């Protein structure tokens, strides 16, 4: 009987051991070359970690907390994939790279803070992390790859993407059904800027602002965003809105499409049954007329007469109102936005679109020289030539960024200049023009004498300029006038000389003179005279 009891006890122990090793963590900690798991805490060391390449792959459901130790630089593909009970993650500053599917299927993970060294969020990195309520994206991230947050249904409220992100992959926030507002960075650009289905089925999304640098809203971008009410399409590089981009956006009542858009794809607004006012500002827009006509039956399309938008609107069965040509009410500059205003001929309604800052030539200096006024300006990317305008009249063209106007030489006369940057083989396409800038020309002074008549002194005499407020005398021991002193004197009726004092005996001094004219807080300077020199012998 004792023998039978012993055999039965051994059988129970062996059975329990088999059960434990087959589906859960053994009593003792499980340790590998670069990890250790104990009491549900997975501690990772080394440089790179991937759960599927370790003996941990059969124990994913036992992982509740992950601590990645300093020194780890990379989490490999599917690093913690399908760790469905994982709720806490600590990542070190040393981490530089998180591979695709790193946390996909971690359905209990509520939040995570990514270290600042991360520059890219890879494909499917947080796919179906359905409990993820918040994530802190580092400011150094530049790319968020395809489907990175696809299926993160608990991401809620306002989602802010930091400045510096330039690219989205397709379906990045597909199915994030709790997000109400997205703030996109101004750095978001072309090359996947708004890719296929990026915000598709974000059913709680109410508003979004598309940044200036995005050139395409591609197919299905906002499909199924049934709460979307406000979309701001800032004018700039936006050229095309793709097929079914706003499909079934059943709360969208109005939309302004800027004049920069030249193409609308198939059924852009199919299912937009609440649309009341659709303004298409461009006169050269190409619209694919294949659309669900009943979707826009209640809308009024404001557009340019004889435009592609008007032809499409007739096919949609919409009411059509015609816009007057847009008028620029504020010109854009190199650093500031401009505005263009459109007025409806039929109802008087107005629409204002934002014009992006332009890479404009900026006049950096207007200098009086002995040959005339010298103009210098900043280079403009893509410009093949610059047209120079004086007092509203074109006077010359150059590929350089400076020009001497030899005909602007009348003493005491004002001259106004503007630079127009152009491109193309014939140089006829205007990129932009500078703001007009004014100068006063003063002729070059002439030194009539320079003598050392007294101890450590020199007397400089110069010709009078009847238009001058005063004169500047510059002197020093350098012929290039480095480390010089400048003496300023007020113009007087008879006095046309200045005594320079405290000079060093035995030294040779170089002197030059220029006139100036003051108008309130603005001072204009004439051309420098030719230099003269004198040796101090006394």
Overview of this protein structure:
- The protein is mainly beta and 538 residues long.
- The chain has four domains: 25-130, Leucine-rich repeat, LRR (right-handed beta-alpha superhelix), CATH 3.80.10.10; 156-358, Ribonuclease Inhibitor (Leucine-rich repeat, LRR (right-handed beta-alpha superhelix), Alpha-Beta Horseshoe); 363-441, Immunoglobulin-like (Sandwich); 447-535, Sandwich (Immunoglobulin-like), CATH 2.60.40.10.
- Helix content is 6%, strand content 35%.
- The protein contains two helices and 44 strands.
- It has a five-stranded mixed β-sheet, with no helix packed on it.
- A hairpin with a 2-residue loop joins strand 2 and strand 3.
- Residues 1-23 have low confidence and may be disordered.
Write the SSE topology:
Elements: H1 2-23, E1 30-31, E2 35-38, E3 41-44, E4 48-49, E5 65-68, E6 74-75, E7 88-90, E8 97-98, E9 111-113, E10 120-121, E11 134-136, E12 143-144, E13 157-160, E14 167-168, E15 179-183, E16 207-210, E17 216-217, E18 230-233, E19 240-241, E20 254-257, E21 263-264, E22 277-280, E23 286-287, E24 300-303, H2 308-316, E25 319-322, E26 327-330, E27 338-343, E28 350-355, E29 363-369, E30 372-377, E31 385-390, E32 393-398, E33 402-405, E34 413-423, E35 429-433, E36 437-441, E37 447-451, E38 458-462, E39 470-476, E40 485-490, E41 497-500, E42 508-519, E43 522-525, E44 532-535
Parallel strand pairs: 3-5, 4-6, 5-7, 6-8, 9-11, 10-12, 12-14, 13-15, 15-16, 16-18, 17-19, 19-21, 20-22, 21-23, 22-24, 24-25
Antiparallel strand pairs: 1-2, 2-3, 26-27, 27-28, 29-30, 30-33, 31-32, 31-34, 34-35, 34-36, 37-38, 38-41, 39-40, 39-42, 42-43, 42-44
